[in-house]
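quick one, two chains, predict together pls
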Amino acid sequence: MSYEALCPSCGAAVVFAFDASVVRVCPSCRSLLVREGASIANAGRVAEIVSTPSLLKLGEVGSWQRESFQIIGRVQIEHAAGVWDEWRIVFGDGRFGWIAESLGRRHLLIDVPTRDLPEFGKLRAGDRIYASVNVMVTELGEARAHTLAGELPQDLRPGDTWRYADVAGPKGAFGTIDYGEGETAVAMFMGSAATLEQLGLAHLATNVQAAKAAAKALQCPQCGGALTLRLPDLSQRMACPYCGTLLAVEGELKAVEVPDKQSKLSFKLQFPLGAKARLDGATWIVLGAMERSAAGESGSESDRFRWREYLLHEPARGFRWLVEDRGHWCVVDNAHAGELAMVSTKTLNGVTYKHFVSSQARVDSLVGEFPWAVARGELTSAIDYIAPPMILSEEFTGTEFTVSVGRYIERGDVEKAFGMKSGSLPRPSGVHPAQPNPVTGLAGTWAVAGMLIVGIVFLFALLSMRTKTVYQTTVRVPPGVVSGAPDTVFISEPFTIGGAGNVEIEVSSSLNNQWLYVDGTLASTKDELAGDFEAEAGFYQGVTDGESWSEGSNKSLAYIGRVPAGEYTLRLAPQWGAIAPAVARIDNYHVQIRRSVPRGSYLLIAIVLIVLWPIVLSARRMSFETSRWSESDHAGGG
Amino acid sequence: MRSKYLLFGFVVAALYTAASVLGFEMGGTVTRGPRGVQGLGGYRGGK
C-alpha cells in the first residue's frame, strides 16, 4: 500500500510506493526522508548520484526466474576500488533483493537467513565456509554508503559503513554477507551473475553506447603530457606513459605516486596503448600493461622471473589479460571461484589442473589505465596450476581471492589478432608452463592400435609362407674314423626343392659334453649353383659345487637365402670333439632341410623398428615435460 | 604423426613379408661356382 506525503524540505509530493519502505529520497530536492510512524523526518540532503556506466533505472520492471520485480532504490557505495551501484528491487510477493553492479557485471541477490556464519574477524580470503551451500570467501572489505536515490526498506544513510564478505559458490552462485559494523553477520544475500536479458531488462541495453562515457583527453598533472583516458567511468588508476606518475582517476587526475626520477618502463610495450586486437570473435582494446615478477631461486633482485600483462577491454565482455612470458602468450580471463573443486589437484569446469608453482607476485612497472587502485610494489600471493594449454591462477591479497584461467596461444595468433607482420613479436624461448607438448600422439591407444594392425600384417606374412620339409636323413659315422677326415664326408642322394624362399638346415645329434661341427654345401645337380653353410651344435652338462648345470643344444640351424626351385644334393663334412671325461666320438647325426621358413630374429628386428618410434617420441615428450616442470616447485620430479 | 607412424609400420611389415616370402637371408645365398655336384667327391652314405 503506498503512502503519499509532502516533502518537509521543498513541499513537493513524495510517494512511498511500498509499505515496507523506510527511507526515500525526494526527487525534487534530494532530501532524505525517513518514515517514523505516520510522520516523515528530514534527514538532510544527500549527494548527487555519481556518474557510472550503469544502464539500470529506478522504476524499471524486470523479471527473474519468471517472477517480476521492480527497481525501487539505488545506493552508491564506496569501497577501496571506487564506487559501485546497488539497486534495491522488490518482487511481486513482497520479497526484496539487490542488483549489484561492478565493472560492468551484474549480480542479482536475494535476502537469505544468516545462520551459523563465522565472525568477520575469523574469515580469510580463500576460506571455504558453509552458508546454506559451500562457498568460498572471495573478498573481505569495508564499504560506505555514498548517496541514495528512490526508496529503501532499511534505514540506510549516506556515510553509514559496514563490513562485508563476498562469497562464491558452485554453479555461478554469488553472495555477500553484511556484518554491519560488528563481528556478527546481520544480513546475507545470495544469487548469481545475471545479464540484462536474464533480468528481463534487455531493452535497457540499447542505451549501451549512450551510457558509455567517451574517452577523455587529459593532461598529466605532473609532466603535462597528453593522456587519453579510455574508460573514464571504470578506470581507477592511470600510469603516465611519459613520466611514470601513478594517477588516481577521480573525475580529474590526481598524482598518488610520483617516481623519484623520470621513470621509464622496465619493459618494451609490444602493443601501444589503445591498440586493437581481434580475439575470440570480439575487438579488444589495450588499456594498460604491467610487468610483474616473482622471486627466483636465489631470491636476488636480478634473479626474479618477470612477465608482462596487457589489460584488454571489450564493452560487452569486460576485461581480460594477454600475458607474455619469455615470448610465450596466454589469454587470461577471470573465473568464478565458487566452481573450484578443492582436492589434491584443482578442477574447474571439468578440467583438472596440477599444481605448478606458488609464488609472491609483485607489480614492478606499469603504464596505462586500470580499473582498480593498482600500485607499484603491490604484492599478491599467487598459485599456478596447469592443464596445458590451460593455466589456472589463484591470487590472494590480504582481503581478496581471485581465480583466473589462461589459455596458451601461439605467437602467430597474437600477431594476427593485432594485425602485425609474422615474426614481429619476440621468438619464444624455453617451455611455458601452459605450452602444449608438441610431441603428441602415439602414446597409449594409438601405439597399441598401430601394433595390432602391423601384427595382423605379420600374421598374414607368416601364414602366406608354406613351410615344408624337403629332405631329412640320419648320417652314420663309420666306426674308427677321425674327426675331419676325408672319409667322414657325406653326399646325399639328389632331392627336389620346390617353390621359392630360403632353406633351413637343421643338424642334430645326441651330444653329451660333445660338439659337432658340420661344414656343408647345398649344390644344384643341374648347374653350378651352390650355397655354403656351417652348423655347430654342442651340449655340455655337469655338477659344480653341488649344483647341476647344462648349456648348449643338441641341434644347430643354418640358413641359405633365395634358393631357386630345383634338384639339389647335400655335401656334409663333419668334425666333432668332447670335453673330458666324455668320449670324443659320435655315432650319427641327423640332418633336416626345410623350405620357406619364417625367421623369428627378423620378426624381432621388425618389431624393434616399429617400437623404436614410439620410444623415441616418448623420450622427446618426456624431455619437453622435464623442461616444463624444471621451472616449477616440482623440478626434479618432486 | 599417427598416420606417418602407421605408414612406417606398414612399410616395415611389408618389407618383412617380402623378405620372408622371397627367402632373404643375411647369411648368404646360393652362388655360382665350381661346387656343383660335379665337383663333389668322396664318401656317399646315409640312410
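Chain A touches chain B through 66 residues (CB under 8 Å).
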